[in-house]
Protein: GntR family transcriptional regulator
Amino acid sequence: MGYKEIYARYRQQIQDGLLKPGARVPSIRSLASELQVARKTVETAYEILTGEGYFVSLGAKGTYINPELRLTSTVSADNAVSSRSPHTLVTERKGDLRLGIPALDEFPHKKWLLISGKAARSLRPEEMLMPPVMGFQPLREAISSYLNISRGLNCRPQQIFVTSGYRANLRLILSVLAQPDDKVLFEDPGYFYGQQLLKRMASNLHYIPVDRQGMDFDYLQRYHNDARFAIVTPTHQSPLAVSLSLPRKHQLLAWAQQNSSWIIEDDYDGEFHYTRKVIPALKSLDMHDRVIYTGTFSKTIMPAMRIGYMVMPQETVARFSELGEILETGLPLLPQKILAQFLSEGHFYRHIKKMRLLYQQRRRMMLEAIETSFPGLFEFELTDGGMHIVAFQRRGIEDTALAALWTQHELYVRPLSSWYAQTQKRYGLVIGYTNIRSTEEAKKILERVKGKTLELMQH
Ligand SMILES: Cc1ncc(COP(=O)(O)O)c(C=O)c1O
Structure:
């Protein structure tokens, strides 16, 4: 291989946006050894790349792709943002209406960076081997203590299985505990991705309507008393955000005990409850260990981290452990280590407390902006918590067309109707508000779709 080929490879990678401005390139010596060419060959290629401005050499600190490089053609917008400076965290994402994203502008980045550095530096050799399948032990301990204190559970660290989130939880639970034709119940309307996954995984899937008190237990008892699994969002029903009433919680638990069925509790945003005291998890009332509790850090930290967990009932731990070794490989250790530290040093609690107050304010701002921008077009059945609102349409067109219009203008809302399976659909938009920083900002964002929305809905 000659210098021209090395030069051409780098240029191509940079132009395709695969090597980003600010990235460090290997030293001449190590690349020469890797490619088994003379050092001089690599040196010549690097000299040309530096001469043309693709590389900059910082002497003993190494050689980098020029951080100032601005490519006009193939570099995507994402790359352009992250190339601003290799060491600057890009935290701004103005006015994102996506569902269930934490307030990214308020994330404690500095603290997180500090802990990340410490965690990376302290990786011990044994932590570089295969990670434990059920999770990094200090993280399991921190999660169980958090759940016991904040969500009213009474679990032990050995009951915690750390996973990559909701869908991983469902797949694992069904793989370990379900027989192929077991009857599985899901709320209607219910979490879009949950429904899609279950349609593929559960051949005997049925739906239970939801009313203002949550999943309709009478319906369950009348038509599906023989079910093996019921998947519920008791704290804030997804997407309607109503809470499962206390009598229904007790009925559901008694049903599971009598039938030896399992309740899968999806407590995805239970931390965020505003006007009354935080509602304890359904699992906290579960005297007979029939609830498999599932949670996620997607709403409290960030979805990109992909860390969730479940609490295995005592009698199932051995089965999860045995099959887990076959089905899973454990999550990457470093993020688990960072998270464990973030929890055990108390930052997590402080952060949630702060977000609870902030989200309450941001929800008010969003509602105000919708009411002013679209007077009389939407109505709300406000509940006490959650991270999104449902703007029910008073009249007008199918919500899919409306959501498509908003999406075209980068307002990524969801059409409510797409979360229904069998029950009579209601129409509206599911809107995240956690990244709205002021009423003015919200109004400005809505301005993008105001005219066309009014046009569509007033037909
Ligand atoms: C109802 C519901 N459950 C669970 C989750 C969490 O999903 P994950 O842990 O995969 O990020 C979400 C996220 O949007 C959700 O809306």
In short: DSSP finds 15 helices and 15 strands in the chain. The pocket of pyridoxal-5'-phosphate is lined by residues 100, 165-167, 191, 233, 238, 266, 268, 296, 298, 303, 308 (CB under 6 Å). The CA atoms of residues 3 and 45 lie 5 Å apart. The two ends are 68 Å apart (CA to CA).
